[in-house]
């Protein structure tokens, strides 16, 4: 049970999906346990004495057949479940590979992995991914925006190829390092989920840098406060924080190797895909669902748990009121992880009334399932706040 808890609550984006993943991981482990029980009872059999005195071991082969079937599902279930949970691919690559990147020193002993691509003479976009993901999640943005912009993506400390302390404050300071590393006089920031929280933390903690170097900020499916307060069932989520969520996340940190093993088993069985499906709307494809499920399994469960704990203690209300910078907010109409009302609240707190766009049919992972709409809105916003110096671009 402890291993199930650790794996379930570690590889997730937000606590809501954590609860779903706990249930699906538990189902996955129950299936594995039943498989082991059936295989053992088949092998052990039943000792029977014949009338002539001979002793035979009788085995019921239906137990073996069921054990084989459950073993196949336990380690190959995602092959069956993924097509049932998501639509067919729409020409996207089945694997999102990394580009040419490098590692740079960051604050507090961090080492930050960054990639630079696209048109070097164009406006500079810096993209910050969501929690339990890494910069490969931006493969649509790199493809769609690279022809007109200089695009920089990076891994948050603790995830992907970056190392360092896991906290919103260190994430923000690391983003400041990436801005400085870019060498651009002005940049446009875009962040999804905790990436948007990181941008707001930078505005809160370093408003001078933000005002001087940021031409505009685009926040995707994010919030301005402890996410337990802006997802569905907020009272329930806050009620289980101390008795359930906090202890389980801390247990995950202590039992990371076991949690990782359980997480990989859940991924292979397809139960991770079932849990992560909660974060998508009606447009999700199989490759998108598998990519998110793989990243949430591959990243260290202990580091992910630390990030979830950090979110519980985070508050950036009014952060964007400290800086006079244009802001674009994009929310999924179906987002249950960071409800669209959170974007409305952020817009109300900015110096200038920020633009809010809601994408129909999109959930928390809208920047994947509705990538064309998100990227088009980001491109238009970037061209507005940071027009290229070359009119031909």
TrEMBL record:
GO function terms (MF aspect): hydrolase activity
UniProt keyword terms in alphabetical order: Hydrolase, Membrane, Transmembrane, Transmembrane helix
Domain AB hydrolase-1, residue spans: 123-369
Keyword Hydrolase: yes
SUPFAM superfamilies for this protein: alpha/beta-Hydrolases
Ranges annotated as spanning the membrane: 25-43, 64-86
InterPro entries linked to this entry: AB_hydrolase_1, AB_hydrolase_fold, AB_hydrolase_sf
Keyword Transcription in annotation: no
Pfam families reported in the protein's UniProt record: Abhydrolase_1 (PF00561)
Protein's UniProt name: Alpha/beta hydrolase
Organism: Devosia rhizoryzae
């Amino acid at each position: 049970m402890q291993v199930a808890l650790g794996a379930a609550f570690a590889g997730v984006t937000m606590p809501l999906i954590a609860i779903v993943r706990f249930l699906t991981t538990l189902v996955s482990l129950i299936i594995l346990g039943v498989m082991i029980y059936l295989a053992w009872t088949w092998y052990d059999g039943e000792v029977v004495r014949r009338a002539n005195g001979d002793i035979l071991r009788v085995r019921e082969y239906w137990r073996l057949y069921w054990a084989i079937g459950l073993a196949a599902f336990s380690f190959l279930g995602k092959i069956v479940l993924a097509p049932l949970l998501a639509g067919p691919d729409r020409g996207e690559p089945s694997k999102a590979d990394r580009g040419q990147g490098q590692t740079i020193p960051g604050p507090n002993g961090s080492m930050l992995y960054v990639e630079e691509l696209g048109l070097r003479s164009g406006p500079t976009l810096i993209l910050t991914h969501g929690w339990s993901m890494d910069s490969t999640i931006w493969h649509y943005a790199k493809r769609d925006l690279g022809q007109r912009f200089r695009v920089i993506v990076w891994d948050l400390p603790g995830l992907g190829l970056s190392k360092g302390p896991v906290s919103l404050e260190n994430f923000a300071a690391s983003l400041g390092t990436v801005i400085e590393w870019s060498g651009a006089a002005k940049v446009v920031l875009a962040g999804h989920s905790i990436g948007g929280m990181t941008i707001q933390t930078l505005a809160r903690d370093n408003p001078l840098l933000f005002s001087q170097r940021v031409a505009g900020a685009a926040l995707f499916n994010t919030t301005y406060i402890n996410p337990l307060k802006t997802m569905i069932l907020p009272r329930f989520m806050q009620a289980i924080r101390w008795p359930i969520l906090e202890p389980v996340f801390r247990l995950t940190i202590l039992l990371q190797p076991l949690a990782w093993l359980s997480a990989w088993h859940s991924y292979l069985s397809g139960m991770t895909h079932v849990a992560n499906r909660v974060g998508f709307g009606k447009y999700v494809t199989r490759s998108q669902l598998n990519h998110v499920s793989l990243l949430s399994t591959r990243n260290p469960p202990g580091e992910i748990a630390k990030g979830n704990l950090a979110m519980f203690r985070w508050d950036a209300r009014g952060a964007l009121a400290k800086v006079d910078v244009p802001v674009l907010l994009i929310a999924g109409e179906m987002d249950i992880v960071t409800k669209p009302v959170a974007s409305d609240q952020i817009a109300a707190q900015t110096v200038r009334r920020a633009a809010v766009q809601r994408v129909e049919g999109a959930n928390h992972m809208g920047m994947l399932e509705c990538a064309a709409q998100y990227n088009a809105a980001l491109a238009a916003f970037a061209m507005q706040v940071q027009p290229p110096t070359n009119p031909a671009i």
